[in-house]
Design a protein that fits this description.
mainly alpha; 94 residues; single chain
Length: 94
């Protein structure tokens, strides 16, 4: 079901007729450079992932400090409004 040698040869001949030998050479080198850059970026990404996985002993953030807050401390910063008063935010009645 894949592309055989005969089909590949026909595609290359058609590309040669359409683009010409000089243009086809530059397209091939540009495509090769793009593939090389993609492989390099994938390798760097895998290196970075393995570094992060190997250094799992380090913490990204300290979540314990956020858990120590009591509900009264969290609501102390919020302004209390008397019941029935509206906020300053504009609401649209659509």
């Amino acid at each position: 079901m894949g592309i055989g040698f005969r089909e590949l040869l026909i595609i290359l001949v058609i590309a040669l007729v359409i683009f010409g030998a000089k243009r086809l050479k530059t397209i091939g080198s540009d495509l090769g450079g793009a593939v090389k850059g993609f492989k390099k970026a994938m390798g760097e990404g895998e290196e970075e992932d393995s570094k992060q996985l190997s250094s799992s002993s380090e913490k990204d953030a300290d979540f314990d400090s956020t858990l120590d807050r009591s509900p009264s401390a969290a609501s102390a910063g919020a302004q209390e409004r008397p019941p029935g008063t509206k906020t300053n935010s504009k609401s649209s009645n659509v």
